[in-house]
Structures are given as structure tokens and as C-alpha cells.
Specification:
Length: 264
């Protein structure tokens, strides 16, 4: 069964492809499914009830496609829905995201950590708990980034508008002495090349995609679900413009793929 089953991954849009890439790198034998809920992006400005409902619908869809595990490749969806999904499917391996506060607090030399994230993530109780637990000895400056997800969804990773928007968010953090930046949204790792142009080499950029992949591996191993055969090609769905996602897939995923329309 494990060889035929898949890992279902979803996000509010294409950002979770950054996590999907890490899973593929670590677990090349696993067959993958990916849903971009781009018809409702960004989640950061939506209510928790709305995000929970979308997460339940997408989880049901992925399970119907044969998923043996679920990955919420979205910080905002994790905050809103991961506890409900774990309660609903107690035997199912489910992995969520959280901003990399712990490794950032350990990495900083100046004692100042900046967080780039969506409004929904920054105002959550879960994020506040992370700060209380891991960041008591450092100064954490949070920066909501409205508009940034939409630029990445459009495939604009290096353009003038994205550059201007990102610089406006990063400059105040640098001015406060930040030497470590948490990329607190799964969309943001796609901006690493641009960030390397905008911030000094001494500033560390930290996200949790690789850590999530390792957690997926641990849970699959614990449930005796690791695949042993050859992986089949990843399948993609979008609740938004499937053709638009298909055009930017080579840039974000690294290869071409067919994107299907997510059923209503």
C-alpha cells in the first residue's frame, strides 16, 4: 500500500512548492500531490473559520486521491486548521509549518531577529507562544508583508515592483540591527535570490522547508509508510487559474508539469 500511496501537500497558492521541493529532495521515492488554493490567496487576510473550511475541503480531496499523509505547507493554514485536521484524522500523519524562531534565535549574533510573514501568522497565538518559548533572550521584530504573496503568485520574483515592495519591508529590520531574517511564509524562499541582492552577506536567511521534509520522513517511517518503489510524476491542482500556475511551474518547481483545475 505504501508504494502506491502519495503525500498530499497544499498551500494557499504556489508558495508551498518550496516545501514540496524539499520533500522531493529528501524523499525521491515518494509520489507527491500538490494543491494550490490560488483562488483564495492570500490566506493571511482571511478569517480562521474560512481557512479551516478550505483546509478541510482540500484535505478531503487529497485523501480521495490516495494521500497517505498530509502536509500543510502554509503557516497560516497550520495555525488555523492543523489541530482540527489531526483530531478529525487521528491515524493520519499530518505535518504543519511554523516560523523558524528557534533556529533563528540560536543563529543571531547581534541578538536581533527579523520576521517576514503574513498578517495572519504574526497575529496568531501560536506565533506568540513560539516567541515566549524560544526568543526570550533575543529581540524579535516582526514585519507583515501585504502584497508580497501576490507578486510571487504572479511569478514576479525579481521585478522592480517586487524589489521595491521587499526592500520596504526589509530596510526597517536592517536599520534595527537585524542579522537574521526568518522567512515566515512558504512563498518567501522563492525570493532568496532577490534578498541576497538586498541584504548584506552577513544576514542569515532562515526557513523551515527542510525541517518539514525531515518531519515527514520521520512520521512516514514511524507509520511504516515510506515508499520503496519508483515515484510517479507529481500531480498539481489549482483552485485559481490553472494555466497561470502551469506557466510559472518551471520557475518555482524546476520542471514542467500539467496543472489541473481543482474541482469545486
Amino acid at each position: 500500500m505504501a508504494e502506491a500511496a502519495t503525500i498530499g501537500v497544499f498551500d494557499s497558492g504556489v508558495g508551498g512548492l518550496s516545501v514540496l521541493r524539499e520533500i522531493r529532495t529528501l524523499l525521491p521515492r515518494e509520489s507527491l500531490l500538490y494543491v494550490a488554493d490560488s483562488g483564495h490567496v492570500p490566506y493571511g487576510e482571511k478569517s480562521a473559520d474560512f481557512i479551516r473550511e478550505r483546509s478541510h475541503q482540500i484535505a478531503e480531496f487529497l485523501l480521495g486521491q490516495g494521500a497517505k499523509a498530509l502536509v500543510l505547507a502554509c503557516n497560516t493554514a497550520t495555525v488555523a486548521a492543523v489541530a482540527d485536521l489531526r483530531e478529525r484524522y487521528p491515524q493520519l500523519p499530518i505535518v504543519g509549518m511554523e516560523p523558524a524562531v528557534k533556529p533563528a534565535a540560536a543563529a543571531t549574533r547581534s541578538g536581533v531577529v527579523g520576521v517576514l510573514a503574513t498578517t495572519g501568522t504574526l497575529r496568531s497565538a501560536k506565533f506568540a507562544a513560539l516567541l515566549d518559548r524560544f526568543a526570550a533572550d533575543v529581540r524579535v521584530i516582526t514585519q507583515p508583508c501585504p502584497g508580497l504573496v501576490e507578486r510571487i503568485e504572479a511569478g514576479d520574483l525579481m521585478g522592480a515592483l517586487t524589489r521595491e515592495l521587499l526592500m520596504g519591508y526589509v530596510e526597517p529590520l536592517l536599520a534595527e540591527g537585524c542579522d537574521t531574517l526568518i522567512l515566515g511564509c512558504t512563498h518567501y524562499p522563492f525570493l532568496r535570490p532577490l534578498l541576497h541582492e538586498l541584504v548584506p552577506d552577513s544576514v542569515s536567511l532562515i526557513d523551515t522547508g527542510a525541517a518539514v521534509a525531515r518531519q515527514v520522513q520521520r512520521l512516514l517511517d514511524a507509520h511504516d509508510l515510506l515508499a520503496e518503489g519508483e515515484a510517479v510524476a507529481c500531480r498539481f491542482w489549482s483552485s485559481g487559474d490553472a494555466a497561470a500556475m502551469q506557466r510559472i511551474l518551471p520557475t518555482l518547481w524546476g520542471e514542467f508539469g500539467r496543472v489541473e483545475k481543482l474541482p469545486d
